[in-house]
Design goal:
Helices cover 43% and strands 19% of the residues. By secondary structure, the protein is of the alpha+beta class. Helix 6 packs across helix 9, helix 13 packs antiparallel against helix 14 and helix 14 runs antiparallel to helix 16. The protein starts with 13 loop residues before the first strand and ends with a strand. It binds one RNA strand through helix 6, helix 12, helix 14, strand 20 and strand 24.
RNA sequence: CGCGGGAUAGAGCAGUUUGGUAGCUCGUCGGGCUCAUAACCCGAAGGUCGCAAGUUCAAAUCUUGCUCCCGCAACCA
């Protein structure tokens, strides 16, 4: 897949472009595809204009989650990681992604490089060993901050008493970098794109940074800290390990031949991992005395009907399925054109079809067909440009005005506006044909003008094909072939950089590039109620099949369930989800219960109604409020309902 | 009063910095054209620019207050 073009001059610009390394606990979905396609587009563009480009993607394979996921499937961890990593790689190959390197955090070179970095940071004094002192719940195997504890002692998870436990860990002095980070954000207004995200990060950093625990001793599946430190039970924290891939891919700490690619021009990421890239990563780099990346660009989510995609909702879009059905490059175009960078976008086959039929078919494909028809009928496909500027200078100027606006848009990640602007020349061309009516020109014997018009159209198409090439590599090569020229660094230089016209085109008839799509290709899952219920039943069966632990009746009776009457309800201030209830359990037993049901029930409608309460739950503290019980409710994709007695019962009635 | 972004035609967006005729894409309707993939071109309908008040000759744009939405943080016992 490597297509990296070497630079002819020594002074030429470097372009190191990265995607995140994808975590192998999931198979590739549209979000992964989106990030990767953006990066690929930037990489192809950057090669085309002659920059020395290095495009990196890969997989992140360490951490407890992977260890557990493999165990659950009865596989060795390495075997499992190999399988998922392979799925990512084959997906990108299917997507014609032109990555120069596919890194895996299980690569030997990566581990060595990550260890070298750890050592450097340690030697500098930025990593120090300390004990993580905290309130530890033995049964939950988790530390809790003081503020979460119930009555300053009990575990908020299970209610058992916590003990103060000291666990050793290595820490990174993130707090030392707070001011330096703020200075970096301040001096580099475009370091984080879109700009709204930069604000978010600045506010977060201003609120104070604590040192970061960067090793774990609770699992093995990770990179050991360097041998020199002689502390073999410590494994690097996954994010430290993962972020380092951007350096180790260039050979940091091993064969450093490619290190001249650093710093990265752009790290493309999804908005979920902004904090790691915008705070931890620059701080690590500062510690290593490395220059910082030029841009960290965070894009938004793809939704379905405005809802987040999730496996449980069954509305996940499989990118390969879409690419197979609608055409890979059409899908690439759609993803980049449809959504303003940084914002969320809604995926639907309807929207995709509209883009294909309207933008690609009507505006672009049909224009090429018009030219094929005209030039074939009138000039046998032989088109010359020498008189274009004599008759159509206005149109040429309009086209050039658009073309020159393109590059800055790309550097600002404004891919959707880039494509919008790129479509303007097509409109100029379509308009010109109608305005000057070549068929009339031919009837009137004004062949010269008709020829020049063909030349205008052909040159506009050539310009558009070149600038569209990074988004639709194969399609644009076909367009170029039909026009009789080649898309490469030379034609880019001549046509786009120098703004020259191609003198002559030999136009060849090709079948329509974007045949009209009349109907949705993939059957939409009816997705209405019956389907959902079916899915849920299956899930439940699966749960049983996998063996939800069986309990004895005695164990069941350990839980005290009671009917309670809500005598007072109010909203918890500043909380999106919580309501504060006073529940009467009879015998003067009035419980204060904090419940996360505000999104589905208002305080007023609850007062006087009955609920089912777990009465012997250890108290917990939520938003600083004590909660002495749990209200039973059932929640699914459509919302949450409380479990209530069918008819009113006396407060305090036992449920069994 | 935790931080930030937003509300403009049926949908999606631009315009707000620097007040001066409200614009683009898709969709709808009417017309034109035949080189073309029922495509292309022209035209029309459709908006009290979230609400209220203020400044001004003039407010989508500036000021103040309010409502609602969406991110981040917190949070589902």
């Amino acid at each position: 897949m490597s297509q990296s073009t070497s630079c002819k001059t020594t002074s030429c610009k470097k372009a190191y472009i990265t995607t995140p390394i994808y975590y192998v606990n999931d198979i590739p979905h549209i979000g992964h595809a989106y990030t990767t396609v953006i990066a690929d587009t930037l990489a192809i563009y950057s090669r085309m204009i002659g920059h020395d480009t290095f495009f990196l993607t890969g997989t992140d394979e360490h951490g407890q989650k992977i260890e557990e996921a493999a165990k659950a499937r009865n596989r060795s961890t390495q075997e499992y990681a190999d399988e998922i990593s392979g799925k990512f790689r084959s997906t990108w190959d299917r997507f014609d992604i032109t990555y120069d390197k596919f890194i895996r955090t299980t690569d030997a070179e990566h581990k060595l490089g990550a260890q070298a970095a750890f050592k450097n940071m340690f030697d500098k004094g930025d990593i120090y060993k300390d004990v993580y002192k905290g309130h530890y719940c033995i049964s939950c195997e988790t530390f809790f901050p003081q503020i979460q504890l119930v009555d300053d002692e009990f575990c908020p998870e299970c209610g058992k008493p916590t003990s103060i436990v000291e666990e050793e860990s290595y820490f990174f002095r993130l707090s030392d970098y707070q001011d330096k980070l703020l200075a970096w954000y301040d001096e580099n207004p475009e370091c984080i794109l879109p700009k709204s995200k930069r604000n978010e990060v600045i506010r977060f950093v201003e609120s104070g940074l604590e040192d970061l625990s960067v090793t774990r001793t609770s699992f093995d599946w990770g990179v050991r800290i360097p041998e020199e430190i002689n502390d073999p039970k410590h494994v690097m924290y996954v994010w430290l390990d993962a972020l380092m891939n951007y350096l180790t891919a260039l050979g940091y700490g091993t064969d450093e031949a490619k290190m001249d690619q650093w710093p990265a021009r752009v790290h493309l990421i999804g908005k979920d991992i902004l904090r790691f890239h915008a705070i931890y990563w620059p701080a690590f780099l500062m510690s290593l005395d490395m220059p910082l990346p030029k841009h960290i660009a965070a894009h938004g989510w793809w939704t379905r009907n405005g809802e987040k995609m999730s496996k449980s909702k069954g509305n996940v879009v499989n990118p390969i399925e879409i690419a197979d059905a609608y055409g890979l490059e059409n899908f690439r175009y759609f993803m980049l054109r449809e959504v303003p960078f940084g914002g969320d976008g809604d995926f639907s086959q309807r929207a995709l079809m509209d883009r294909i039929n309207s933008d690609l078919g009507n505006d672009l494909g049909n224009l090429l067909n018009r030219l094929i028809g005209m030039s074939g009928k009138y000039f046998d496909g032989d088109v010359q440009s020498d008189l274009v500027s004599k008759y159509y200078q206005v149109e040429l100027n309009e086209m050039k005005a658009s073309i020159t606006k393109l590059e800055p848009l790309l550097y600002d990640m404004q891919l959707h506006r880039y494509l919008d602007e790129l479509w303007r020349p097509l409109s100029v061309a379509n308009k010109a044909i109608d305005t000057y009516q070549p068929w009339t020109l031919m009837k009137e014997g004004r062949e010269e003008e008709a020829m020049a018009l063909n030349g205008l159209i052909a040159n506009i198409l050539a310009n558009v094909a070149i600038m569209l090439h990074p988004v639709m590599p194969k399609t644009t090569v076909n367009i170029a072939k039909s026009l009789g020229f080649t898309i490469d660094g030379d034609s880019y230089q001549k046509i786009i950089q120098d703004g020259a016209l191609l003198d002559r085109f030999t136009i060849e008839k090709i079948p329509p590039l974007f045949p009209r799509i009349e109907e949705m290709i993939i059957a939409e899952t009816p997705k209405e109620e019956p389907k959902k219920k079916d899915e849920k039943k299956e899930v439940k069966k699966d749960d049983k099949a996998e063996g939800v632990a069986l309990i004895t009746i005695d164990q069941f009776f350990l839980t005290s369930l009671k009917i309670g009457t809500v005598i007072k309800a109010e909203e918890v201030p500043k909380s999106k989800k919580l309501l504060l209830l006073q529940v009467d359990l009879g015998d003067d037993d009035i419980r204060q219960v904090v419940s996360g049901i505000k999104e589905w029930y208002s305080a007023e409608e609850l007062v006087g109604t009955q609920v089912c309460l777990v009465a012997n739950l250890k108290p917990a503290k939520l938003m600083g409020l004590k909660s002495e019980g749990m209200v039973l409710a059932a929640k699914d994709g459509d919302g949450l309902v409380l479990m209530r007695p069918e008819k009113p019962k006396q407060s305090g009635t036992e449920v069994s």
